[in-house]
Specification:
HAD-like_sf; single chain; alpha/beta; HAD_sf; hydrolase; Rossmann fold; 6-stranded parallel beta sheet; EC 3.1.3.18; HAD-like_hydrolase_sf; 219 residues
């Protein structure tokens, strides 16, 4: 973050681990969705998921079938995995903690356009955010998979929905890579991250970090 927070015209938020305390819900859901293949393959997917936070479930389940199970990607099997995952995760998203002081940050950055850019399913995200009274905060839109973050950021920049000075708030290495590729400033939020030894990683890459949105709201 190279500027004062109030100097940004656009704020882009990841969802899981930033706005919602939902990383562990998603991690468990990957195991639940694949446990009928056996414990070891399911755990291998969990390990891959944790190491690749922010990547869409579509790509992770394709990886599971192709690389872990070493079978052809069949649409019916892939859709079954996606359905199992969605069923496992939906209730958790409706009940998990919302980042404290999100409304305060909105007031502090009232002139900025807010977007969600997530690896989560776009339709699912919009449904959850509407049900939980969060939808109206993100006036720039709520976007997710099957499009990946690189594609979403490029598209929204091209359409000028992401405009001027822009900041990405994320909790994963992929968030940082996507923000850098799109030319956005980046800040890492650590409280709910699943990045192992994150402190060493942010120090190595000279990334500014805060614990959570509440810390940003009181800057």
């Amino acid at each position: 973050m190279n500027k004062l927070l109030t100097d940004y015209q656009t704020l882009v938020f990841d969802c899981d681990g930033v706005v919602l305390n939902s990383n562990k819900i998603k991690t468990q859901a990957f195991y639940e969705a694949t446990k009928h293949f056996g414990h070891e393959p399911a755990q291998a997917l969990v390990d891959y998921h944790v190491a690749n936070g922010g990547v869409s479930r579509y790509l992770k389940f394709e990886y599971f079938l192709k690389e872990i199970m070493q079978i052809s990607i069949v649409d019916s099997i892939l859709q079954d995995l996606l359905n199992r995952f969605a069923n496992a995760v939906k209730q958790g998203l409706m009940e998990c903690e919302v980042a404290p002081e999100l409304d305060s940050l909105k007031q502090k950055t009232a002139d900025a356009n807010w977007l969600i850019v997530s690896g989560g399913d776009q339709a699912e995200l919009r449904e959850v955010f509407k049900a939980r009274g969060l939808y109206q905060l993100f006036d720039g839109g709520i976007f997710g998979s099957p499009d990946d973050k690189d594609k979403i950021l490029a598209r929204e920049k091209s359409s000028k929905n992401i405009n001027g000075n822009a900041l990405f708030l994320g909790d994963s290495k992929y968030d940082y890579k996507a923000a850098s590729k799109a030319g956005l400033d980046f800040v890492f939020l650590s409280d709910w991250t699943e990045v192992k030894v994150w402190q060493a990683w942010v120090d190595e890459n000279k990334i500014q970090s805060y614990r959570n949105i509440e810390d940003l709201a009181i800057l």
